[in-house]
Automatic annotation (TrEMBL):
MF GO annotations: DNA binding; DNA-directed RNA polymerase activity; zinc ion binding
Coiled coil stretches, renumbered: 564-591
Protein name: DNA primase
Record InterPro entries: DNA_primase_core_N_sf (IPR037068), DNA_primase_DnaB-bd (IPR019475), DNA_primase_DnaG (IPR006295), DNA_primase_Znf_CHC2 (IPR036977), DnaG_bac (IPR030846), DNAG_N (IPR013264), DnaG_primase (IPR050219), TOPRIM_DnaG_bac (IPR034151)
Catalytic activity reported: ssDNA + n NTP = ssDNA/pppN(pN)n-1 hybrid + (n-1) diphosphate
GO biological process: DNA replication, synthesis of primer
Keyword Magnesium on entry: yes
Listed EC numbers: 2.7.7.101
Zn finger (CHC2-type) start-end: 43-67
Domain Toprim: 262-344
Length: 649
């Protein structure tokens, strides 16, 4: 409907914004200046202890410096009470004592009808509450006692009882002159298909009233007393008042509790919410018999930026969590996410609190994990990734899931988190080969823990020294010019580092290269300590490398990475051929073995530059790393030994 000019301004004048907001917050009087209309309080829209929520009465505007909520009188009512604009105008007009302008007749009639339905629901609620104290409700009261629900809790949550008769509520409401049409439209009765009187929807059930954010009773949930009943829990049918997918049980009280600093907990059912709230977790809500919907998520995020989904720790609870996750992914953005708290298997919040007390529930909440962890768990749990095809399928599934996130910045952070988990799952192993008792053998060594030594890369004896240095040049180049990394990401991931420190740095480079040099260095220092960077960049061969001296030159960095990775690949090819030769020589060997080894040795020589005249070494690039004649001789000795073994066979 259209409003006459000046009507909204008059409303704002009659009721100050601080009056409206003051019903939802506790003002910080040390920071506020009442005389100037300058008010501060903890934000009612997200959890915080400091007063970052500001109200300017002179401008009629509020702003939160934490979650960035902002707006006018009407915006505050719409966000805090989940109202539409006209409902917010009506609520403010009622507080100001101003009559609303004449509406469109049909709209006015519709609003009057909804108001009438809400009054009928309140009459039904009073009837059900009265019935809980009647003789027919003895079993229901005994059940509630067994569940630990005190009289105070029953009053707080307005628990009632629907007797087993077919027309108990119908007759009661008709006796109060409630029109038949209103009872049917409120979803309290159904017409008979046998030509008899309509019959009550709820019979022989413990009744839980469902109120909207404004406190109106809009529906009921009923728990069957008969164990053979087809439906253990039954909700009201959808009506003009009640939309199941847009409603939350305990919405209003939970929003108020969260505004006072409590967490917003999404449980599965009525009894869980009641148990949580009674144990001091007042910010508990529940969807109404279905998985969490898009609209319910929007309602949750209006209350807080990171609700906790607390579900039973069984397979059904985990499936429900994953359904919620997939509903949330396309809606998420910075400041809007979920955490998941899985309870011990076989227990719901009510069971856990009654068995172990509120502290046990708090421990579960403290262990709540972010949505990205659940996404990883869904993609990997119960699966084997022992082949390239299976690993590729994992990558595809995760990419498809992350693509659902519309916020590009958030999507990138999810990609970084998934990369880190993936590297932990497929952490490279170091492969060593050697000869013992006349036989070649393969040894697998897991990468070592966090390195702390500042030893030189060339301090260790053996053929790995130059490889370790070459790895260092590659990593220093990647850190100095991160924009060159994407073209070599796959090769870097497969680079089998011969030094644990190099392996750890390589993983960080692959996770953080999107964020630039400084972010990578900061993560390396935080994760591995400052000595890691010192060791990487302090060696003379690394320090004089052109890519380190001239950071940011993308073409130079790409050429260096391509060259160094090619040489590592050639060297690794020779090692693989020698390793395979051991297996083949244990059976029937032929000339193909020595041919492959000779070819692999030649590949190493082709990857190297011509020998320098003064030192007799094979120069492998401007960084100064070399394959020495001694090392080449070692490979030739290995080859000769294999040829000798073959002749002996």
């Amino acid at each position: 409907m259209s409003l006459p000019p000046g009507f909204l301004d008059e409303l704002r004048t009659r009721v100050s914004l601080s009056q409206v907001v003051g019903k939802k917050v506790m003002w910080d009087m040390r920071k506020s200046n009442q005389g100037k209309g300058d008010w501060w309080a903890p934000c009612p829209f997200h959890q915080e202890k400091s007063a970052s929520f500001h109200v300017d009465d002179r401008k009629g505007f509020f702003y939160c410096f934490g979650c960035h909520a902002k707006g006018s009188h009407f915006d505050f009512l719409m966000q805090s009470e989940n109202l539409g604009f006209m409902e917010a105008v009506e609520a403010l007009a009622q507080e100001a004592g101003m009559p609303m302008p004449a509406r469109d007749p049909r709209a006015a009639q519709q609003a009057e009808k909804r108001k009438g339905l809400a009054e009928v629901m309140e009459m039904a609620l009073r009837h059900y509450r009265m019935m809980l104290n009647a003789g027919a409700a003895a079993d229901a009261r005994a059940y509630l006692d067994k569940r630990g629900m005190t009289a105070e809790m029953r009053d707080r949550f307005e628990i009632g009882f629907a007797p087993a008769g077919w027309q108990g509520l119908w007759d009661h409401l008709r006796g109060k002159d409630v029109p038949e049409e209103m009872i049917l439209k409120a979803g309290l009765a159904k017409p008979s298909d046998k030509g008899k009187k309509p019959y009550d929807v709820f019979r022989n059930r413990i009744m839980f009233p469902i109120r909207d954010a404004r406190g109106r009773c809009i529906a009921f949930g009923g728990r069957a007393m008969d164990p053979n009943d087809n439906a253990k829990y039954l909700n009201s049918p959808e009506t003009e008042l009640f939309d199941k997918g847009r409603s939350l049980y305990n919405h209003g009280p939970a929003r108020e509790a969260v505004g006072k600093g409590q967490p917003l907990i999404v449980a599965e059912g009525y009894m869980d919410v009641i148990a949580l709230a009674s144990a001091g977790f007042g910010g508990a809500v529940a969807p109404l018999g279905t998985a969490v919907t898009e609209h319910q998520l929007a309602m949750l995020w209006q209350i807080t930026s990171e609700p906790v989904i607390a579900l039973d720790g069984d397979k059904a609870g985990l499936r429900a969590a994953m359904r919620t996750m997939h509903v949330a992914l396309p809606l998420m953005e910075a400041g809007k996410s979920l955490r998941f708290a899985l309870l011990p298997e076989g227990k719901d919040p009510d069971d856990l609190i009654r068995a172990s007390g509120p502290a046990a529930m708090q421990e579960v909440l403290d262990r709540a994990f972010p949505l990205v962890d659940l996404l990883w768990r869904e993609a990997t749990e119960g699966r084997s990734f022992d082949s390239p095809e299976r690993r590729a399928a994992l990558d595809r599934d995760l990419r498809e899931a992350i693509r659902k996130i519309p916020d590009l910045s958030l999507r990138r952070h999810y990609g970084d988190a998934i990369k880190e988990m993936r590297y932990q799952l497929f952490r490279p192993q170091r492969t060593e080969f050697g000869r013992s008792n006349g036989k070649w053998s393969i040894k697998q060594k897991l990468q070592a823990a966090r390195p702390t030594t500042r030893a030189s890369y060339l301090s260790a004896a053996g053929p790995d020294a130059d490889l370790i240095l070459r790895e260092a040049v590659i990593l220093a180049t990647a850190i100095s010019t991160p924009s060159a990394v994407p073209a070599f990401e796959g090769q870097l991931e497969l680079m089998e580092c011969h030094d644990p420190l190099n392996s750890a740095i390589r993983d960080i480079v692959l996770r953080r290269y999107h964020d630039g040099t400084e972010a990578m260095k900061e993560t390396i220092v935080d994760t591995l300590g400052p000595e890691a960077l010192d060791r990487l960049f302090s060696h003379p061969h690394v320090a004089i490398c052109p890519t380190v001296r001239r950071p940011g030159e993308v073409d130079l960095a790409r050429m260096t990475l391509a060259e160094e990775l090619a040489k590592l690949k050639a060297r690794r090819g020779l090692e693989d051929e020698i390793a395979e030769a051991e297996e083949e020589l244990s059976g029937t060997a032929d000339e193909a073995v020595t041919h492959r080894l000779t070819a692999a040795t030649d590949a190493v020589e082709r990857a190297a530059r011509p020998p320098s005249k003064d030192k007799g070494d094979f120069d492998l690039g401007d960084n100064g790393a070399r394959i020495s004649r001694e090392e080449k001789g070692a490979f030739e000795a290995i080859l000769g030994s294999i040829r000798f073994d073959k002749r002996q066979k």
